[in-house]
Amino acid sequence: KKLLSYFAKGIVLVALLTLFDGTIQPAGAAPLSNPEVRRAISSGKVVPFSVAIKRARAFTRGGEVLRANLVQNRGRLVYRLRMLLRNGRVMIVFVDARSGRIIGSR
Cα–Cα distance between 43 and 26 in angstroms, integer? Predict the structure, then answer.
């Protein structure tokens, strides 16, 4: 029963994240459009999404990526990755888009 309860909570959490993800941005953060993301990656100004995802997965010890966005925050390009941790909690990981380094989490 306990396992089923965790499973049901996980489904509800994923459904809520799907409905509300991306509607609330941190102050000063603006997501880039798809053409802006493609230009930034192709120009070499930022590391590819795959690098940011790899670093975030290592940081969260195998967390699953729910959503990844490239945002501009205070003049800095940052990957914002919403990660589902093994314990069912959700963590936002911020990766500097130029260097690929983890710069924060919440």
Answer: 26
Alpha helices in the chain (DSSP H): 2-20, 34-42, 49-59
Closest CA to 78 of 106, 55, 58, 101: 101
3-state secondary structure of 15: helix
Using the Cα atoms of residue 20, residue 17, residue 93 and residue 96 in order, give the sign of their dihedral. negative
Question: Do residues 59 and 52 touch, judged by C-beta distance below 8 A?
Answer: no
Helix (H, G, I), strand (E, B) or coil at 26: coil
Contacts of 61 by beta carbon, 8 Å cutoff, 6+ apart: 85, 86
In tens, the pLDDT along 22-61 reads 433 444 567 777 788 788 878 888 899 899 999 999 999 9
Which of 105, 106, 103 shows the shortest CA–CA distance to 47?
103
